[in-house]
Amino acid sequence: MPEVVKPIPSTWCPGCGDFGVMAALKNSLKALSVPTEETVIVGGIGCSGGIHNFLDGYGFHSLHGRLLPTALGAKLANPKLTVIAVGGDGDGYAIGMGHFIHSLKKNVDITYIVMNNETYGLTKGQPSPTAKVGFHGNLEGPFDAVLTALSVSSAGYIARGFSGAPREAAQYITEAIRYNKERRGFAFVEILSPCVTYNDTYQLWRQQVESVEKIEGYDKSDRAKAFSTVLQVKERGKIPVGQIFRVADDKGAPALDKTLLPMVERSPASADISLEHNLPKYQKLLASLG
Amino acid sequence: MATTPATSTAPVQSPVPTERVGPPSRPTAPLRDISIMIGGQGGDGTLTVSDLLGRYFHARGLYIYTARAVLSRIRGGHADASTRAHVEPVWAQKPVQDVLVAFDDDAVKVGLKELDPHGFVLADQGSVKTEGANIYHLPLSITAASKVGNGLYKNTVAYGALSALLGFDVAAARGVIEKRFGRRGGDALNFNLKAFDLGRELVKEAGLPAPLFTVAAGSAKDHILISGNQACALGFVVGGGRFFSGYPITPATSIMENLDKMLPQFDGIVRQVEDELGAINMAIGAAYVGARAMTATSGPGLSLMTEAMGHAGEAEVPLVIVDCQRVGPSTGEPTRHEQSDLLFVVFASHGEFPRFVLAPGYASDVFEITVQAVNLAEKWQIPVFIMLDNDESENTQTTPGFDLSKVHIDRGKLLRQEELDKMPAYKRYEFTSDGISPRSVPGMKGGVSQTTGNEHDEWGHVSVNPENRRKMMAKRMNRLELAKQDLPAPHLWGDEKARIGFIGFGSTYGAIREAQRDLKEKGVPTRFFQARTLWPVPKEALATFLEGLDVAFVVEHNYTGQFARLIRQEMPEAASKLRSLVRYDGLAFRSPDLVHPVEEFRARSG
Fold first, then answer.
1. Of A41, B49, B78, B568, which has the fewest Cβ atoms less than 10 A away?
2. Considering only alpha carbons, which residue of chain A is nearest residue B462?
3. Do residues B34 and B215 make contact, with C-beta atoms less than 8 angstroms apart?
4. Which of B223, B254, B266 to mutate to test the interface with A (most CBs of A within 10 A)?
5. What pLDDT, in 10s, does the model give residues B120-151?
6. Which residue segments constitute the domains of chain B, with CATH numbers given?
7. CATH hierarchy code of domain A18-287
């Protein structure tokens, strides 16, 4: 085997929440025995987006806000791959918002992890779409990606974790990747990941997180209930976390890649494109134009 | 920036009087070049008539060029189409019309200006009020409504009437209907055949002297009738393209629609996505994992794609981007013709990276160049642009059947697993003599890599090391020089000894070839450099071309003479021989627009 690129030490500040997310992702990939050569990590732009450099596997550093279409293209072209898109809240909910909604709608079997720190850390602390009113003079109310995801009818797996609780975070990510492997569709995992330099919320969030799964009678396959519970928890001044929604096994929208490519062995990336192989079909195609 | 257009050629008015005295004289010999325009309201079925005529003439061995919406400069819901048929190859619209089929008065008003003195108008009685010695009113829609049961069949009634007025072979004319509607099943075929027969009867009942004139037959029987966008879709499939993502935009959409029918048969995928940002980045993702990928758009979409073009350039991801140009800037004129994206495409996106910009001139050229573009993108691991233009994308023309034996798939330095296994080390951006690094794709063992839009070292790690930067820039940029022999060579047309030249790209090919033919008849030999690679500018070939010339007219559809500017920038020594001929009113050049300036030049230079 050739010598290949090695992961480099991270560029994150000591204590950054992203370390917890990375550890969780690493453990999930290991727990599921995903082969390194079948792992594709697509990073966005921002502190979190550099994660592919720090992990084993094929890494792709995409443009700011465009990690999702890039990751979907990779998965649709070769559904054998395990594709994880990882970016920040600015990347995903500001410049890349359109792709976020449409990725939920498209329902391709990838896992999308957003490290939410409520700020633009790399550009030194501007308010992000999830920032509270008043943060660095922010005048706009925060955006909640979990509620948005719940409102998209094809969204089948939605979780929110906290990097201060890496074991649970790893569990959500593991379940998300497993959900992909079962070809059930797109999995969305937001992880609260404090920026120790510009928005150190560790203590605050540790007190605020509340697992919806521990609420009595909570049914994560009930979308309406999930939506109302998330709202109620927020109204109590808490942050709802947990496996918030997982569509029942016998329900849910079909995964797009499964619909288009029922057999993972036959895909755009693996197609034999030689002329010899295709000639009779090409001739037929040309003849049909008459 | 010039404030006046680069030497502009005002569209030459056709030499046709609009008022006449006395009965028109009809051509006695069969016409060797005929153009029939059909105009009416959107939904009148003008395209159906145009299509049936195209099929008929095609079956009669003539070369065809069809255009649509030629008159959409008129307000409201006006729609029209024209079909040209010629004994010799044609690639552009005829400057005048021989027949006008009018479903309303607007069609007569504008169409008459382009009607040849020997021509006539077939008008729908009841819908067209305009009278004239040359206007024959027949109850097309009334007959369709009362005798076929649906006024919409007026288009086929009109086709039937035309078949009588122009002395068509009846069996062949009916055969076209059978071919077109036979597959649909139901009553469509019978109703259309009935409408056709009724149209012929109307001519007889009206006592018109049919045929008024006739059309010669030709020998172009092995040709296919196809649009540039269809040819592009086919070229992509045959070139091994298996992934397409796009966003609907005129006039690029039909590439996506055609591929949507074709690609699934080959384990390929077509996705319509949320915007052009998604389209290009999704194609990049697919290309990254080893699928041959393409996106197609027009000006507004291309503007949105610019950031990602540079990403493909820096990350060295093979990608084909088709630009079906229309009138810009901004929304411009979505259905109209222009070639004003050239400088944008050559320089689009921030920073510097290598790209190839290719421009085919006619349908079979579109096919060939698209196959080549997919190969070039993968071989040189960079973005490759194909520039089409509105008329080239949308209009149909006859072209010889595509030659599959010439197709060759070149995957460049894409590694096979057994090659990768033998390598001591795999570096995605390894320095090599030709700047191209061996490429693994996800899924391959031992080929793990980092692919990035950041500047990087050979391993793909982010790097700001100045020496590395210099080497990486050279690695990428040198391809422009190294790839030269690989890029589509220009086609040279006309007389090698001519002193007058044309330089053009894209669909101006048609008007230029026809102008050459017309000038030759007037005893003026010309030479035409059909540029098929626009960037890098084919300097050596252009220098050779210009050597024996007194003047070269650079023909293009934009205000500032962009290709001429590009050539002057790259070849200052050539500047004195270049003259810009531009047209930017949304319509395509026709032969007289080019013949006239050449004659003027000759008159001035004695």
1. B568
2. A53
3. yes
4. B266
5. 999 999 999 999 989 999 999 999 999 999 99
6. 33-205 (3.40.920.10), 225-406 (3.40.50.970), 415-487 (no CATH), 488-604 (3.40.50.920)
7. 3.40.50.970
